[in-house]
Amino acid sequence: MSAFFTLHQGLKREGPGDEESLAWALDLARTPVRARILDAGCGPGADLAILSRLRPGASLVGMDLHAPFIDRIRTEQPHVTAIAGDMLAPDLLARAGRFDLIWSAGAAYGPGVEASLAAWRGALLPEGAVAFSDCLWRNTRSPAHVRDFWAREYPGMQDVPGHLRRIEAAGWRVMGARWLGDAAWQAYYGPLADRIAALRPGADAEMTAVLDEHQAEIDLWRAHGQDYGYYLTVVVPA
User: Fold this and answer.
1) What's the whole-model pTM score?
2) What span, in angstroms and rounded, lies between the C-alpha atoms of 24 and 137?
3) Distance (Å, rounded) from C-alpha 57 to C-alpha 62?
């Protein structure tokens, strides 16, 4: 994994996202100015920085399993309470308190949407909401090689109807939902592509394999981004 972390070291983002989509979710959820907000699976803290601008009076908590991300947030954003650990762990959530908004960008797919929503329910304040993005199919007839890629990366990937059924079955109500635009993908893939190009000269076999794998992912989106996308959903307990 050393080549993987070398590639990702210093990147601001570990997945698609942008300020415009985050602002939309905050407004839809009616998140107050002085809210308590948890960024669950916060990565290196790009969205925490945006939240600091959009809700400067908020109390922010970032939680991620990867300790180096948490160390980076503590250095770069000392106003944020940064917690290393499982974003679904009951003890960590209890220690963090309760929130007006739980934000999670592309992190719920690992443990599963149902498990994530179940864990976060008890961490919400009475009028609180969860806003999370998940990768979904936009086109049920996408080419076989696109299907094969996502079968490896995200075997449980849904289309929009399946996604909404899963949320409803978990006991939540959808306030609103929207696709992330191309700018959100470029915010991740643009710097990643630049980093790949910078590391190409002199890369050993391990690094070359990692660079090729990530470049193939970028190329797939550039050619077939109309077939899948990140879907941002704001939900409240039903």
Assistant:
1) 0.96
2) 22
3) 16
**Strand-pair category, 228-237 with 124-137:** antiparallel
Q: Pick from 129, 127, 80, 63: which is nearest to 102 by CA?
A: 129
- The angle at the Cα of 213, spanning 208 to 219, to the nearest 5 degrees, equals 120
Per residue in 135-163, pLDDT tens?
A: 999 998 999 999 999 999 999 999 999 99
Given phi > 0 = left and psi -120 to 50 = alpha, else beta, which region is 71?
alpha
- Quote the CA–CA distance of 47 and 196 in Å, as a whole number: 23
**What's the number of CA atoms in the CB half-sphere (13 Å) around residue 222?**
11
Distance CA 224, CA 103 (A): 27
In sequence order, the 6+-apart residues with CB closer than 8 A to the CB of 148 are none
Spatial contact of 142 and 92, defined as CB atoms under 8 Å apart: no
Name all domains of the chain by residue range, CATH numbers in brackets.
12-137+156-181+228-237 (3.40.50.150)
Read off the pLDDT of residues 2-37 as tens digits, 9 standing for 90 and up. 999 999 999 999 999 999 999 999 999 999 999 999
Q: How many C-beta atoms surround the C-beta of residue 189 within 10 A?
A: 23
Shortest CA distance to 41 belongs to which of 13, 77, 22, 19?
13
